[in-house]
Design goal:
Blueprint lengths: L14 E6 L23 H15 L3 E3 L9 E3 L14 E4 L4 E7 L3 E7 L4 E7 L1 H6 L1 H11 L8 E4 L9 E2 L1 H10 L7 E3 L6 E3 L1 H11 L4 E4 L14 H6 L8 E7 L1
Parallel strand pairs: 2-5, 3-4, 8-12
Antiparallel strand pairs: 1-13, 4-7, 5-13, 6-7, 6-8, 9-11, 10-11
Length: 254
């Protein structure tokens, strides 16, 4: 059965959302069963049916998901777009009722935003590159263009790779320190010499705290550690699997 996870921070009479797990879909094999990734090698009709079920859970006819490129770019959506016309960006924002906004992830941060007073919502894909280069701040600025107020915006971080599962090399560490030496606090020593364990959820939370939004909830769900519920790119690499499924986080105004 479909069993999406919900955030208390995003609860409201005019907002519907879900962090969809890998359960409740029709995909098979490595993709079992709620694979939302059109970029995977899964059967296209199965992915389309999975997304149809997600949209139905939200109570909308259209679920819009961008072509994600690990950028800081956020786009305003005023009308639904077809899957083959999906824009290249990593965040979608709308004030339009009845349009589901979604992003995919399989270790990267998937974050949903809402200003219930202004009726403005957003969905963001933030891997380490997007989080470092400003996709969160870009999303907030785009929401403000539609009338949202920073202090009223609430955000929730869904299933994301946890620090205990995310080992990185020295070049990765140096890139963050090159941006701000204070970012060293998001790295812990690894058991391997010269390597580190990176806290992506903590870094995302830090960036949003600095942005002074109204509330932030980290659901503290590690994609790598919970195979039963979540896909994980890194886990698939460690197992030398041919491909991996994608989770979807989605939100809509109703």
């Amino acid at each position: 059965m479909m069993d999406p996870i919900h955030s208390a921070a995003l609860s409201g009479p005019n907002i519907t959302h879900g962090f969809f797990t890998r359960q409740g879909g029709v995909s098979q094999g490595l993709y079992a069963s709620m694979n939302g990734g059109v970029g995977s090698k899964d059967d296209g009709e199965a992915v389309a049916e999975n997304r149809r079920r997600m949209a139905a859970h939200l109570g909308v006819a259209h679920l819009c998901v961008p072509y994600q490129i690990h950028s800081p770019d956020a786009l305003i959506v005023e009308a639904p777009f077809a899957p083959q016309e999906r824009p290249q960006c990593d965040a979608l924002v709308t004030a339009a009722c009845g349009i589901g906004l979604g992003v995919t992830g399989a270790d990267c941060g998937i974050i949903l935003f809402a200003d219930e007073n202004a009726r403005v919502i957003g969905a963001v894909h933030a891997g380490w590159k997007g989080a470092l280069t400003g996709v969160l701040e870009s999303t907030l600025a785009t929401m403000e263009r539609l009338g949202a107020r920073r202090e009223n915006i609430k955000a929730a971080l869904g299933p994301t790779i946890g620090q205990k599962s995310y080992e990185v090399g020295p070049e990765f560490f140096e890139r963050f320190l090159g941006a701000d030496k204070d970012f060293a606090r998001f790295f812990a020593p690894s058991s391997r010499d010269g390597h580190f364990m990176f806290d992506l959820p903590g870094f995302i939370g830090f960036r949003l705290k600095c942005a002074r939004i109204g509330a932030f909830e980290n659901l503290a769900l590690d994609t790598y550690a919970d195979e039963a519920r979540f896909f994980s790119y890194r886990r698939s690499v460690h197992r030398k699997e041919a491909d991996y499924g994608r989770l979807v986080a989605a939100i809509a105004l109703v």
